[in-house]
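Example record used in the benchmark description.
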Amino acid sequence: MELIEKKSEFESRFSRWNGGEDLANYPFVENVYAPFTPVRRALPMLNLALISSAGAYIDGTESFETDSRDGDISFKEIPVEIEAEDLKYAARGYDPAAVMEDMNVQIPIDRLREYEENAVIGRLNHVWWSLAGHIPNAARVADELAPQLAKRVAENSVQAVLLIPASRLCHQTLGLIARAIEQLDIPTMMLAVERKMADRVRPPRTAFYDGEFGSVVGKPLWKQYQHRVLDESLRWIETLDQPVVRKLAVELETETEMARGER
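Model output (structure tokens):
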């Protein structure tokens, strides 16, 4: 299955796109079909990996390029031991204020480590992967970035992958990468805060709610909110049996908590 259906048509339209931060007239990818890989073991036995497109990089290392028309077609491999204060962000397409206040809103290492300690997942992979948040050239994502990253994920003996976009455009990027990873028989789950983008690119599994770009995992410094987003999403990796975009119950539970004065 192609990562981009009618890729030549996308390339033709992209060549005529004038660029721009607001993505006016941008030729978004439109897929109809999605690959799907069933989960072969329970969550408490999985090696779970994380992919984030918040543009994070380790302080003192090379940043992502943010000015290229195509976008930066590269990825960085970051050990889970790296602390929040050691990360910088090449942010484009989203406001980095929330992730700078609390890394877990886009890179939920602390939450996933808690799941590991409590046997919700088998273990958190020893590295996670970071991408730029603004990569307009989806054809290069499909031809270069997605297969290279999917291969690297497979080399780490990962059994499931959580993908967390930060901006509108990187919903498309991570959707394409999820498709590539599933073609290597590794199940994925992508979080989303804009359903239209998930419906367009057709990643295999998508959990969405009406959240905000730049804090897709939940509000900063609000652990319970972040757990709500992640709990249901991760469990769906195990239970979903076909490609789907499904809405989380985050808003209702949060409103109830706030009404009780618990936040």
